[in-house]
Amino acid sequence: MATPTPVLDVLSLVHTIRGQRVILDSDLAKLYGVTTSAVNQSVKRNTDRFPSVFCFPLTREELRQMLSQSVITTSQATTHKSLKYRRSDRTPLVFTEYGALMVATVLNSARAVQMSIFIIRAFVSMRTELMTGAAILKRLAEIDKTLIEHDDALRTIWHQLQPLLQPPPEPPKRRIGFHS
User: Fold this and answer.
1) What is each CA distance from 24 to 15, 68, 96, 154, 180, in whole angstroms?
2) pTM over 0.70
3) What does the pLDDT profile of the chain (180 residues) look like in tens digits?
4) Among candidate residues 18, 22, 41, the one with its CA nearest the CA of residue 99
5) How far is the C-alpha of 138 from the C-alpha of 47, rounded, in Å?
6) For the chain, what are the domain ranges?
7) Exposed / middle / buried, residue 91 (Cβ in 10 Å: 0-12, 13-18, 19+)
8) Selection from 133, 105, 129 nearest residue 117 by Cα
9) Which residues have C-beta within 8 Å of that of residue 43, sequence separation ≥ 6?
């Protein structure tokens, strides 16, 4: 069984467009070991599974801005070359993380199945860590509450002990002579 693509390699393929982290259809196809047309055909055949928050086509301006970026990584260079030579009537689709997972469910390749399992395990692992963190935070809140209660009790005891800790007042000095 082939190992999934390392997370750092995948992160280098992620772009921010319209305030969302997305991945190009061609990069997603490479990750899943299929052609870009196979990804796009799967999306067309299953349009009800891909609302606009899962995937959307780039506008010409967004594509131009992406291609004109002066600093791109080596892994993005191949993608950018293929974008330049794409048919002029089609702009690429980009997928959010939900769309990328949905593509894995509709593709019929062993790599896509492996990647969807990898993604699901990653989400389960993250959820477990978050739940553990939440339990720890709940316990810390309980400890904090207990400490505050103890602090209030100690403060009350301290105020009650303060008069007892004061040295006794000196008795009045005896005066010499007769007093009336």
Assistant:
1) 8, 16, 9, 62, 108
2) no
3) 455 555 445 556 777 888 888 888 888 888 888 889 999 999 999 999 999 899 999 988 888 887 776 444 444 455 555 555 455 557 889 988 888 888 888 887 788 888 777 777 776 777 788 788 888 989 999 999 999 999 989 999 999 988 888 888 888 888 887 877
4) 22
5) 43
6) 7-132
7) middle
8) 105
9) 50, 55, 93, 103, 106
* DSSP symbols for 54-112: TEEEPPHHHHHHHHT-S---HHHHHHHHHHHTS-TT-PPEEE-HHHHHHHHHH---HHH
Residue 76 near residue 13, CB atoms below 8 Å: yes
Instruction: Give the torsion through C-alpha atoms of 31, 34, 40, 43, to 10 deg.
Output: -80
Find out whether 15 and 24 touch, Cβ atoms under 8 Å: yes
The number of CA neighbours under 13 Å toward the Cβ of 109 is: 18
- Determine the Cα–Cα distance for residues 178 and 99; give it in Å rounded to an integer: 106
From the list 67, 60, 62, 65, the residue with the least C-alpha distance to 83 is: 67
Residue 23's SS3 state is strand
What is the rounded distance in angstroms from the CA atom of residue 80 to the CA atom of residue 68? 9
**Beta pairing class for 55-57 and 93-95:** antiparallel
Instruction: Work out the number of other CB atoms within 10 angstroms of the CB of residue 16.
Output: 8
One-letter amino acid at 123 equals F
